[in-house]
């Protein structure tokens, strides 16, 4: 949003958009004449991705919150779907499909994603300037630009899946979102942004993929931090760029191209590892989430949080998803804002002996619901936000192979690599050769719902699959609302017992309904007459 997204191009302070030399910021000229300050400018873009700002839109001050990727994109990505229940009304408008152009959640996703994008664009220009002046080496500049273009692509993808129809609807010809790749840090830049239109979904994907091709070419396999004992997962790497490309290809329905990207990160036939970055599945899902700042070889890219720098109790993943009971009563003093939906818990594909029921879920202890145990540090909000895990790469590859029908054996083996670490009972496992075709694709899609709940991926799958006559949900599914009496109670949680469920109080939204998409925020269209004329229908 132009009124907010460009207020702090380098994350060093805030000012009116027309005040291009605020007193509390170093000028860009000064920043990009010193190698250490260049490095800090790049770090600032990661900080913007972690916790830019939250505007309550009611006249009170901006606050720190996990927008866009510190936790907000994950919480909203799940709240838009049916596999969590809203327990406190914190995400009520999103959960109940009652979004308006002034709803704070969508406004802040839009404005913060574009804030990350603009900080990336300003910093790219500065990095190029510093390299041309000999301040930093060409090699360092290429790595920095690779990181920044990765973050730019990640932010644009978050925007396009929320505000545009999926690529698979009419081959990307529907309206996209403005792809901003020029700095908005001058009056001329602001005016240009105020007249930029949406383009098409296909154009957005073309530019994201170009950014990620550059990132793949120029980023190293691993990153290290001085004093750390293991590679950093909070800086973009070659593997992260490839994995994000694989995700984008899945959203395009370009199955063979998704397989091509996955092949760069997957070797093996029953046990899988990555020749780039050394990624591997943890032995159990519990081991993939060691808690707090700890990571495993399954983490490809995460957004860093710490006790000193985090989205706070209103925006941290452990508080959003974790138990509100005290540690003495088995909880973590979280807020349990989003619980596991009884609909997912009772789903027939979620087997009774699946370890994710016990190791990764628990009764809240205060609220009458089951909540997640993926995140552990509600006290200091230090849990990293997992943006890309190796489990996603494996299941992406399984689906892409199953869709092409070229290697059902390998596709099932990839599915089993993720599933069988949690489904250890032989009777519940898929035997080699037992699934193919549509049944195999459906099993993979079901597995994604269990494996990724609480990681924000459900909306992406609902969006990309909704035009699919065979596998799509046909829009936003009906939901169980924890704010409505009797909808979410402990008695509703059972294994494979649909009879225990109530009638969902939140009605489904058909794919054809205008509410399937979020509207461009009112404050954005007020500043950009071109976008005002391109608002999503119905708003």
From TrEMBL:
Organism lineage string: Bacteria, Pseudomonadati, Bacteroidota, Cytophagia, Cytophagales
Similarity comment text for this entry: Belongs to the SusD family.
Alphabetized UniProt keyword annotations: Cell outer membrane, Membrane, Signal
Localization, UniProt: Cell outer membrane
Pfam families the record matches: SusD-like_3, SusD_RagB
Protein name: RagB/SusD family nutrient uptake outer membrane protein
Record-annotated RagB/SusD domain positions: 364-539
GO cellular component annotations of the record: cell outer membrane
InterPro entries the UniProt entry points to: SusD-like_N (IPR033985), SusD_RagB_dom (IPR012944), TPR-like_helical_dom_sf (IPR011990)
Domain SusD-like N-terminal: residue ranges: 96-248
Keyword Membrane included in the entry's annotation: yes
Record's keyword annotation contains Manganese: no
CDD domains xref list: SusD
Organism name: Hymenobacter gummosus
